[in-house]
Amino acid sequence: MIQPGSKLSVQDNSGGRLVECIRVLKKSGRKPGTFGDYIVVSVKKLRKKGRIKVTKKEVCIALIVNSSKSNSRFNGIQLKISLNSCVLLNRQFKNLGTRVFGTVRKELRGLNNLKLLLLSSKYI
Known about the structure:
- The chain has one helix at residues 114-119, and strands at residues 7-10, 16-24, 38-46, 59-66, 71-72, 78-79, 85-89, 100-104, 120-123.
- The protein is mainly beta.
- The protein has one domain: CATH 2.40.150.20.
- It has a five-stranded mixed β-barrel. A two-stranded antiparallel ribbon has the order 5-6.
């Protein structure tokens, strides 16, 4: 459950390390964002080295990849991941990074984000 003020880690190589949620897109009121939702974030910390494409205090769009709330699948399996993470996107909803670290859930295939699955190293 991601709501405004939540801190998320960045799971790609765009240059951000830690971001803070400002707003959940396509939800009205105070409804929290879950896995697969788009959010508006502010970059709080950057990586130390490498090609950094974002700056500190920059406002970006992000896609929630993992959330710490447990989610269940249709076959009865419940998945719980220890931290909230996202992938940074530009204004046209394209990936800023060229690689995605860590695990990504298979349900992104149904959300028309197949490119994100191809960039990731593992998916569950």
